[in-house]
Design a protein that fits this description.
It is a single chain. This protein is mainly beta. The protein is about 10% helix and about 60% strand. The chain is built from one helix and twelve strands; from the N terminus they run αββββββββββββ. The termini are far apart. About 30% of the residues are buried.
Length: about 170
Amino acid sequence: MRFPQAGYVLTMLIMTPLTAWCQDFPKGWAVPFELGQGFVRPAGGPELYLVGLQVTPQLTVIENRMRLGFTAGGFYNANRIGGLAGPHLAVKLAQGKPILTASSYNIHVFGEYLWGTGQQQLPGGGIGIETSNLLALSLKLHRDIIHQSTWFQFGIAFSPFIKKFPEP
């Protein structure tokens, strides 16, 4: 005999410890590591493959609303390897319905101004969706104002250093 409710109960038992300690934009630091893929389109040229790996330590300056941080990382495109760094600001727009003590997701926008090792200056930003301060997906668009090129990336980020909910 099958018990379909048993699957739901098992899922809730597994997910309860995960959701109980994951608050959106909590006080303190968040340190996501992101892998991104996309393209660079130079002015009048073809799209070139782009892959990047970066870390963005962020401090919550307004709890549950705003983070300020710094992005640093590397990229590969068109047989070139380089680095990027600059300030990062994220503002939460919306959050999903709560599950136990945490929201299920949040949607945020962010802005960055990155400087590159190849004289790049990349103002830009994007939109992200984050689950439990653990995983995030993002779409980014930057414009290189020196080389007149457009950078687009889809990223997936993981935050290994999140705080656990205090035990009662």
